[in-house]
Design a protein that fits this description.
alpha/beta, TIM Barrel, seven-stranded parallel β-sheet, two-stranded antiparallel sheet, 11 helices, globular
Length: 316
């Protein structure tokens, strides 16, 4: 389905904010919750040490504190949100680490508790790995999806096996593709995370990752720049022997090319990412998140580039 009408607010691509405003008629907030999960790539289930770019604390540094109950986390975050916007809907978002890596009883308790926290919750969003979706979890999420909209965020990062091995992902592309198909078979929305600037990857390799995603039934994408973070294996390696990282202009050009090749029905959740200033080693230009997104927006407007314009021309 082509969704040209969502290209509003001078954006030349389908932004998440515009998509939710069109769908729900008001602002939608993600409330990032911490269910105290670990990761199969940290605890030894599939590997140890985690992805080389991931901090010892794991992903989800911006989620609530695992020391707090879900109720306390939810109240703290919604209070902050409502200071900016006093009317909106919520997405209960399990962000930290791998949020399907645990006993099914734990998942049922946390997910059902989360969606009961407010009548304004319109979706449950779950960040996980493609190798952490056993059949019993998939079937449970399918049942839950009939009660409230369920969205699953899958970390892919890259389609290239040599890069995946280098960064210690501990799953292959086939596992990812199967996870997408299994989720979509159950009518569960899929959002995919990718990272630009991984060691050894050319702009053509990064573009190939997006081209592969076009062949799958996904609904959203998050595009991030690689952050070199303290207390990570990649951070330690970089400090010992730095390698060239993407400049802001190089990142702008690559993301623009990816967006132009991206199917128009895919919603763009992010075109840059966050890192805490005190944790970031490089590249420092990523700290200016709004500058990064503005540079991409300006570049696309100036050149009359749109999401999917190259995908359409190659498809015809």
């Amino acid at each position: 389905m082509i969704i040209l009408e969502l290209f509003t607010d001078e954006k030349h691509y389908n932004t998440l904010n515009n998509y939710y405003r069109n769908k729900y008629g008001k602002k939608v907030f993600k409330i990032a919750l911490n269910g105290n999960f670990t990761c199969p790539n940290i605890d030894g289930t599939v590997g140890k040490g985690g992805c080389t770019f991931c901090s010892a604390m794991g992903s989800g540094e911006f989620a609530g504190s695992k020391k707090d109950s879900l109720e306390v986390q939810f109240d703290k975050i919604t209070t902050l949100m409502e200071n900016k916007w006093n009317d909106g809907y919520y997405i209960a978002y399990f962000q930290a680490n791998t949020n399907t890596h645990g006993p099914l009883d734990k998942l049922k308790y946390l997910f059902e508790k989360a969606i009961s926290l407010s009548d304004n919750i319109v979706m449950l969003s779950i960040a996980t790995r493609p190798d952490s979706l056993p059949i019993e979890v998939l079937d449970y999420l399918a049942k839950l999806n009939k009660k409230v909209k369920v969205q699953v965020e899958l970390g892919l990062q890259t389609i290239h096996e040599e890069t995946s091995i280098l960064i210690n992902r501990c799953h292959d592309l086939i596992t990812f593709d199967h996870a997408v198909k299994a989720l979509r078979k159950r009518d569960i929305e899929v959002v995919v995370h990718i990272i630009n600037g991984l060691p050894g990857e050319s702009s053509e390799m990064m573009l190939d990752t997006v081209k592969h995603l076009n062949t799958l039934d996904i609904q959203g994408i998050k595009i991030h720049m690689l952050h070199i973070i303290k207390k990570t294996k990649m951070g330690s390696d970089y400090q010992k022997n730095p390698w060239p990282l993407l400049s802001l202009n190089e990142y702008r050009d690559i993301v623009t090319d990816q967006l132009r090749h991206l199917r128009k029905d895919i919603i763009v959740h992010r075109i840059t990412g966050d890192a805490k200033k005190e944790d970031l080693i490089a590249p420092l230009w990523t700290l200016k998140k709004f500058v990064v997104s503005n540079e991409i927006d300006k570049y696309m407007r100036a050149n009359l580039y749109y999401q999917g314009d190259l995908y359409e021309s190659q498809s015809n």
